[in-house]
Description:
Layout: H1 2-20, H2 22-37, H3 44-69, H4 77-93, E1 96-98, E2 101-103, H5 107-132, H6 136-155, H7 176-179, E3 181-182, E4 185-186, H8 187-205, H9 207-217, H10 219-224, H11 229-255, H12 266-276, H13 288-307, H14 312-351
Antiparallel strand pairs: 1-2, 3-4
Helix pairs in contact: 1-14, 2-13, 3-8, 3-9, 3-11, 3-12, 3-13, 4-5, 4-6, 4-11, 5-6, 5-11, 8-9, 9-11, 12-13, 12-14, 13-14
Amino acid sequence: MPELKGKKANWLKIESFLMKGRAFIALIFVLIIFTIIVPNFVNSTNLVVMTKHVAIYATLAIGMTFVILTGGIDLSVGSIAGLCAMMAGGFINEGITIGTNTYYPSIPMVLILTMAIGTFCGIINGFIIAKFNVAAFIATLGMWYVARGFAQIRSNGLTFPNLVGRAELGNTGFPQLGAGSFLGISYSIWIMLVFMLVAIFVTRKLPFGRHVYAIGGNEKAARMSGVAIDKTKIGVYAISGFCSSVVGLIIASQLVASHPMTGDSYEMTAIAAVVLGGASLSGGIGSIGGTVIGAFVIGILSDGLVMAGVSSFWQQVAKGIVIVFAVIIDQVQRRLQERVSLSQQVEEKENR
């Protein structure tokens, strides 16, 4: 009997390990499938293009990871990205009118103003959730509508085209953000790498990161331990808003145009990437590295379906299945962890 219990405990640990590494396993599986289906799928050109696409998902998902680690959710990230894209387009093409004067900000100022807008939207989310105890789902859903509405209002539903600026106004160079590169690597990929490294440092080394995990693990215990719950929650939603603004800027720069529906449904992609990467929707469990791998799974799946000639309608079906599958895995992981914990407690009692 003790041997059977020991074997059962070992199997539970193996299953738990496989669940935690599910994103990497899924990534290998997806690569193998599309390598078989699509000729020359894995080559340098395709990998660079796919990584550029993944960089957008990963940057958005990194911000979402902080939110989910606290046990929250942010449904507004896609619409904030769209709002920021439209604000940047308006700054470049129409400038800022103050009284009878119109000021055309330089591109660095456009970036700063746009990122400030996205961060401010995130702060509003966090403030409503923390100070008024509104469910994150409801608060961010409201921001989803508000941000998307303001994106439409900014141009009466029209697109800001040809965001190249004018030399005489000193606002040229915006397309470089999406098309430029450093050491042969696209700026969007560098941004993803920098965000990933900074986020890993924050979650592993700084008190803020420990507080984020503590809140997701047990908010009451964290509050009794002296964790600033409200400030931390506002902080994670501000981070999410900031990441959303950067994504909106990258997309507008790559397209050299901004559209009110930029980032549509990106919130679901970000959530799926985070959960596929090993995070729990109940909070307290997850990692930035896992999220980035999860974003690679989503990005390669999307691009692989396009290269395989699958229609856009079936692509939506596939993404929907991935999202549902990710949530199911989250529930299975939670049950496995409970079983592993119970098994360990039984072993400790028997060893005494």
